Amino acid sequence: MDGIQVDIQHLKKGEVSLGTSIMAVTFRDGVILGADSRTSTGAYIANRVTDKLTRVQDNIWCCRSGSAADTQAVADIVQYHLDLYKAQFGEPSTKTAASIFQTLCYENKDNLSAGIIVAGFDKKNKGEVYSIPLGGSLHKQKYAIAGSGSTFIYGYCDKNFKEDMSKEETVNFIKHSLSQAIKWDGSSGGVIRMVILTEAGVERLIFYPEEYENL
Amino acid sequence: MQPIQHNFNPYSDNGGTILGIAGKDFAVLAGDTRQTVDYSINSRYESKVFDVGDNILMSANGFAADGDALVKKFKNSLKWYHFNHTSSISSISELSEQNGQHKMSLKSAARNIQHLLYGKRFFPYYVHTIIAGLDEEGKGSVFSFDPVGSYEREQCRAGGAGASLMMPFLDNQVNFNNQYEPDSHGQVKKKLEYLSLDEVLQLVRDAFTSVTERHISVGDGLEILIVTKDGVRKEFFPLKKD
Amino acid sequence: MSGLSFDNYQRNQYLAAHTNIKFQTTSTGTTIVGVKFNNGVIIAADTRSTQGPIVADKNCEKLHRIAPKIWCAGAGTAADTEAVTQLISSNLELQSLYTKREPRVVSSLQMLKQHLFKYQGHVGAYLIVAGVDPTGAHLFSVQAHGSTDVGYYQSLGSGSLAAMAVLESEWKQDLTKEEAIKLAADAIEAGIWNDLGSGSNVDVCVMEIGQDAQLLRNYRTPNVREQKQRSYKFARGTTGVLKTEIIEEHEIDVVA
């Protein structure tokens, strides 16, 4: 078994990937996660209604980008750790969740292609967003964008993001941002999904192309 | 990042199978009509066996574009052959057809095709070529070529994707290989004899339905061209489409 | 040591790179689909198995039983779909006996994806997993690398594009059982006719809530071979007998 040279490029051939547009934004009442819904294998759209917004706790969710298999596996492991944590010490914080994500992504950086945004709400810290890009570093941010489609909306988001927006403003900001990301990125598409995390709990939204395409 | 080399591949494999059998006073050249690339079907009816004139049947199976190009080139060559060998005097007895036109013999056609193929020795036509017709004595005749022009006259030859499945069946049923006279204890080979056109047609149909069962790039339709002293005739039979 | 042995991995890599030796696996170059309906879920598959361009089996079974009411359709490497399905089936039955509960589809899905992820795509199983359990009817797909998808309809294999074309144009919400079976079978047929890796017959498995799962083997047979033109019966003695040898029979006493 020892000394086997594993060629990553080869291993990942034909893998299902989330060529994605994802983001998470803090606002007045908490945080909102947003994502497109396209999963592709090469030129083929393997799933046009994917849910890339994944629950790891009732109040802590993540946006997945990169390899579908890797990010699902990582999210499953994080969920397991958080459940265990909760049983022993009580409700985990968003930062704790992000830290577990980071550990997994950093320690296994050679074998993973996973770009994850962690977002959560708790009474003490309100809405929080943590970004974990490819190498496994951890960045606390007011808002975060990631995935192949995000490159097209850095300018837009930088100009239009405001702190302490209302829920409606934030939903609109995400809708406009992802609309542009989807428009210019061929690997993103389908519907726009959102998850709103506030004191009130979880709210899910879905926007169809007819609505977001010509805003 | 490491550099990636991109290559243009001028060839593709369009599948399909062809089969030529020579009889006593006839010859047949048959081919399925499915054209494929990888796991996709380009067409369910695309002829690849042609009546090129002068009672000669021709098919070039493998890479369809090369096959078409080769047939086209040979047809053109045949045209020029007629230009150069047509006499204004129509009564000379050596001229085997009316209007002073001299028919190209099958063996001349074969030699000509050899030159067409070898002319592209270092960028070959990616095809297995078979021609069929009647020889100078009026006997059925089949010639088969490799991609660069090596050729041979044969009684029977299968070409293309399903050739390896078909050929052993033909060796056994046309040339009676591995068949012995009953009661000779494997000492006396079964005597060779010409098959009738009906028998040949039955063998061809069974050969193609069988290969269709076991080869994914063969199917959809079977087109059989039959050449006799009276000219060329076509027959078509549907094959399975899965 | 447990799990699969990778001892020959490097040797095979060397052989693949430096010789003409090729390791061919029987691939179920396949069309498989799954469709949910108002009271359950169904899966379907074609029955062609190939080795390169050659049809290895004209009527193979691609529908596997994981539990009595959880079935899956497999595409990819035939041996892997079979092995992984049996492994998970076995573990699921033990778990079911231990917990005294009906096995759940999500359990089999989680076990499958964790197994496949562990082997990083080397176990080439692409599966559509479906079934009914105490929580209702479920339909999932799993890819060799370990990713999973959820949906009302799924298709996988080399004929998945042809099948998906039918599903995307014909599918509607709240299908009846009969409508779902027809849709799934039509999708498989699209694969049979238009994908060279798929062919022969359609197998269907219906899993309805509150009822036993029923496997409809060869639900459609649109590719029956026509009668041959000739008989290929040889006259007795056509094959020469080269050598005859008679071996004496010996009685062997078996001591109890």
Main beta-sheet strand count, sense and barrel state of chain B:
5 strands, antiparallel
> What is the multimeric organization of the chains shown?
heterotrimer
What is the CATH architecture descriptor of chain B?
4-Layer Sandwich
Instruction: Tally the helices of chain B.
Output: 4
How many alpha or pi helices of chain C?
5
The end-to-end span of chain C amounts to 39 Å
Largest interface: B-C, 34 and 34 residues
Helix content of chain C: 25-40%
Strand residue content of chain B:
25-35%
Tell how many strands the DSSP assignment of chain B holds. 12
Flag low-confidence runs of chain B: none
- Average pLDDT of chain B, to the nearest integer? 94
Radius of gyration of chain B (Å): 20 Å
GO cellular component, one term (chain C): proteasome core complex, beta-subunit complex
Pfam family, one (chain C): Pr_beta_C
Catalytic activity (chain C): Cleavage of peptide bonds with very broad specificity
Enzyme class (chain C): hydrolase
Question: What is the fold's blueprint, element by element?
Answer:
The complex is a heterotrimer of chains A (215), B (242) and C (256).
Chain A: H1 8-11, E1 17-18, E2 22-27, E3 30-35, E4 39-41, E5 44-47, E6 53-57, E7 60-67, H2 68-89, H3 94-107, E8 114-122, E9 126-132, E10 139-141, E11 143-146, H4 154-160, H5 167-184, E12 192-198, E13 201-207, H6 209-212
Helix pairs in contact in A: 2-3
Chain B: E1 17-22, E2 27-32, E3 35-37, E4 40-43, E5 49-53, E6 56-62, H1 64-84, H2 106-118, E7 127-134, E8 140-145, E9 151-154, E10 156-160, H3 163-173, H4 197-214, E11 221-228, E12 231-238
Antiparallel strand pairs in B: 1-2, 1-10, 2-11, 3-4, 5-6, 6-7, 7-8, 8-9, 11-12
Helix pairs in contact in B: 1-2, 3-4
Chain C: H1 9-18, E1 27-28, E2 32-37, E3 40-46, E4 49-51, E5 54-57, E6 63-67, E7 70-77, H2 78-99, H3 105-118, E8 125-133, E9 136-142, E10 148-150, E11 153-156, H4 160-170, H5 177-194, E12 202-208, E13 214-220
Antiparallel strand pairs in C: 1-7, 2-3, 2-11, 3-12, 4-5, 6-7, 7-8, 8-9, 9-10, 12-13
